[in-house]
Amino acid sequence: MKLIKPPAYEFYGFLISMPFITLWVHYILYGNRVFTDPQLWFFSFPLLFILAVVSWYCHFRYHYFVASRLPGLKNSYKRIFFKLLVYPLVMAPSVIAIHGIYAGFNLFGYSYNPESLKLWLLQGIFVNLIFETLWEVIYMIDQYKESLMEKELLELMNTEQEFENLKSQVNPHFLFNCFNTLSGLISEDRQMADKFLNELSKVYRYVLNTNQNDLTTLHNETRFIHSYMVLLQTRYGQGLHVDIRIDEAYYNYSIPTMSLQLLVENAVKHNIVSKKEPLCIEIYTTSENELIVCNNLQPKQTKENSTGIGLKNIKSKYTLLKQPGFEGGTIAGRFVVNLPLIKNKQ
């Protein structure tokens, strides 16, 4: 039989309780002699302790067997039921066996006494009930902590996976639109196409580097959006007006990566952009720790297919980050989006 090491709390619980249990058992067997007879202290106490160690370890092995077959919180009722069987299966036979040794060999003058055996069995039930309850409560608390840790780990893994899914939606979507723009420029103006391709390489380098992170600083995102606007204005010229007013006090605050690019791209995608009807986009900070992105509404007559990825993507990121306050909607003929600025812990 493989020796299994008991938990520290069970081992020390046994060591601390045994002097009191041993004293009480001797009082049951020998009455007041326990306080006056030295041979009980020097010989009977160590003997009973050794026998009790064997009994206790049998208790532990039985508990270990039950817990290994019925683990976790979901099996608590079954586990408690089978642990109660420790009384007839382990405790009672142990007490009867030890009592038989003392009575059979007339150890230290003890003779068989059914009343003493009865009291010893009752004491065993009482002591075991206390410790069985205590050990089960500790076990259930440990299982509950483990389940919480597993739940948190699962939520973290799900969150990371959802972030990866969201980021994977950005790159192809962004690149596809840029290539569409480049394709149009190649047939119209080769020189402008070369300039556009050069700017695209700079922008996409930033996308590859920054999109590995869930958050980026407002300073980095603002610099990126300036570069991105060069690409758009190369295509639309005076048809696109952008006004960026960022308070430097918020430069070290963070927002979900690529948020501004998605919002600007959505504005261009769903609105008329022309010299006669310019699209005006404003990006500015407020004293309420918010970044506002808004544009005038001049919907295209022929609506493009929309998957809704842009706003859903940003909202999902804020939800995963457990950051409330993201809002987007139409206000007085303008489409306005509020991006909460996240203060860095450091």
What does this structure look like?
The protein is α+β, with helices and mostly antiparallel strands and 346 residues long. It folds into two domains: 8-151, no CATH class; 189-340, 2-Layer Sandwich (Heat Shock Protein 90). 64% of the residues lie in helices and 11% in strands. It contains nine helices and seven strands. It has helices at residues 8-30, 38-69, 76-84, 86-104, 114-188, 190-210, 218-236, 259-270, 309-320, and strands at 215-217, 240-245, 254-256, 279-286, 290-296, 327-331, 334-340. Strands 2-4-5-7-6 form a five-stranded mixed sheet, with helices on one face. It has a two-stranded antiparallel sheet with strand order 1-3. Helix 1 (8-30) packs antiparallel against helix 5 and helix 6 packs antiparallel against helix 7. The two termini are 55 Å apart. 20% of the residues are buried. The mean pLDDT is 84.
Total number of domains? 2
CATH architecture name of the largest domain: 2-Layer Sandwich
Query: How many strands in all?
Result: 7
What fraction, in percent, of the residue positions are helical?
A: 55-70%
Structural class: alpha+beta
Task: Indicate the mean pLDDT.
Answer: 84
- Name the poorly predicted regions: none
Could you describe the largest sheet, including whether it forms a barrel? 5 strands, mixed
CATH class of the largest domain: Alpha Beta
